[in-house]
Design goal:
The protein has 15 helices and 24 strands. By secondary structure, the protein is α/β, with parallel strands linked by helices.
Length: 508
């Protein structure tokens, strides 16, 4: 076993304390299969117990003062910042992700916590001019934001700490109890995060049970997402699972951060060296296990050969191997099954007429950084999310043809275009169907303060603390007549039983 000193109490953080579980499961290091630690495995019954406890805390969560919510998040930020080196090492061990990417994950987690704490002070409403119609004369109107209720946050394996932070920090800021479910392969860092948050909550006089965590498989996820007492489900993962959650959870609000096959367009006026650098940097970070990593590269035909030469010159610089080493950029995928799936997609693309111009094999369990050329439509390596260190390059006659190729995907999370033309840049923003369009940078660029999310099969709703808080609150309209002797509706005005005009003043 690789040395790992767990800091969490035994069991799962459910209710006011940590409860025992029927069994534990090993967590293994994807690079060599060694055991990292042992993780508690939850059940559907424990999931139901967590929701029941959260129901009992809804009113207390909503009434928790702003200063207490902000202080708890700030304290979590402080504690994790002091232990960041240990967190980075743990993330490397349980995800198998290169150290450089785990350092970025911790940086982004800390930013998400800090910004969520700041957003507590910006949770407010506005006044409304109700007297735009005569029936509103003398009325005062304003709206406020109220917590949506219990939040269930389900995170993926690739960025377990960051994704959990994007679920629980905005929920707490909004005044919602939250139940987190990490991916079965990567629960350890998330358990640590939740333990720190619960301790911080008790320090400000709040119940630890405002944040709970349940591990487990599909049955736990179903129990959490189909419970009608839940106000919102926030899920990050595959499109297929996200769609199933949306169907089964209805009418509960569902926020979905799903897959993609992000495209990078190289225009004929692009800086080709910068574009090639971006493909290497954006295609292979986190070993390609990122939903906005570069997967499809669409190059205008005029510069195809020069771009391919620039890309080929850079591929041997991608260091492959042990993710614990600072220089490593590509390591083993999360498990052997994922590696075999990616290999099968590569083989299928080649059988359909594509060429492998770099990589394509496995050495010591690590899939080599791979470049495919001219993958046909209908092949998974082009149409679906490969979630591995594979980039597919295709050329088209014009920039507009490139934009059309980008939009033919069923996904729409992020895309980018490399160009020296402002006209092309703004046209890309106008016509590319994606939640984010990035110019002269990798599609994988994400600042945790910006609205982040997709269109089409890439999901619904937006993350980023400010935007997630909006998603996890509801408006409540206040309509007040200060004086009982004020204006009263006449016989033909709304409020007296007369027909209500559709142009305004409707009562439904």
């Amino acid at each position: 076993m690789i040395a790992y000193d767990p800091t969490n109490p035994p069991g799962l953080p459910i209710g006011a304390d940590w409860v025992p579980v029927p069994r534990h499961a090993p967590v293994t290091f994807p690079f060599n299969g060694e055991q990292v630690g042992s993780a508690p495995v939850g059940t559907a019954q424990l999931a139901e117990a967590a929701i029941t406890h959260a129901v009992g805390l809804r009113a207390q969560a909503a009434a928790l003062p702003s200063h207490a919510r902000r202080a708890a998040l700030a304290e979590t930020h402080r504690v994790l910042g002091e232990r960041r080196d240990e967190l980075e090492q743990l993330l490397v061990l349980e995800t198998g992700k290169p150290l450089v990417d785990c350092r970025v994950e911790v940086d982004r987690t800390l930013l998400t916590l800090a910004v969520s704490a700041e957003e507590v002070a910006r949770l407010h409403g506005e006044t409304v001019p109700l007297d735009l119609l005569p029936s509103g004369e003398g009325l005062i109107g304003f709206w406020v934001r109220k917590p949506i209720g219990i939040v269930v946050g389900i995170a993926g394996f690739n960025y377990p700490l960051l994704l959990a932070a994007h679920k629980l920090a905005p929920a707490l800021a909004a005044g919602c109890p939250v139940v987190v479910k990490p991916a079965p392969q990567t629960p350890l860092a998330t358990l640590w995060l939740v333990d720190v948050v619960r301790t911080a909550l008790t320090q400000v006089g709040a119940p630890a049970g405002l944040v709970q965590l349940v591990t487990g498989g599909v049955e736990v996820g179903v129990a959490l997402t189909t419970d009608r007492r839940v106000g919102a489900v926030s899920f990050t993962g595959s499109a297929a699972v996200g769609h199933a959650i949306a169907r089964d959870a209805a009418p509960t609000k569902v926020l979905l951060e799903l897959g993609s096959n992000s495209a990078l367009v190289v225009a004929d006026d692009a800086d080709l060296d910068a574009a090639a650098d971006a493909v290497v940097r954006g295609g292979y970070y986190a070993s390609g296990q990122a939903c906005i990593s570069v997967q499809r590269v669409v190059v205008v035909q005029q510069v195809r050969d020069r771009f391919l030469d620039a890309l080929a010159a850079r591929m041997d610089r991608v260091v492959v191997g042990d993710p614990r080493k600072p220089e490593t950029r590509v390591a083993a995928l999360i498990d052997a099954r994922s590696t075999q799936r990616v290999l099968a997609w590569i083989e299928s693309a080649v059988a359909a007429g594509a060429s492998v111009i770099h990589g394509g094999g496995v050495e010591d369990g690590v899939l080599s950084p791979t470049v495919l050329l001219d993958v046909p439509d209908s092949q998974s390596a082009w149409d679906e999310e490969i979630f591995g260190p594979v980039v597919a390059v295709r050329s088209v006659p014009t920039v507009q043809d490139a934009f059309d190729a980008v939009n033919r995907s069923r996904y729409g999370l992020h895309a980018s275009v490399f160009t020296s033309s402002l006209e092309t840049a703004f046209r890309a923003v106008d016509v590319i169907e994606a939640g984010g369009v990035v110019v002269n940078e990798v599609p994988g660029f994400r600042s945790d303060v910006m609205p982040y999310g997709g269109v089409k099969d890439s999901g619904a709703g937006r993350e980023g603390p400010r935007f997630a808080i909006d998603e996890l609150t509801v408006t409540r309209m206040a309509i007040i007549r200060p004086a009982s002797g004020g204006h009263r509706p006449g016989p033909s005005e709304p409020g007296r039983g007369a027909p209500v005009p559709s142009s305004g003043g409707e009562a439904r």
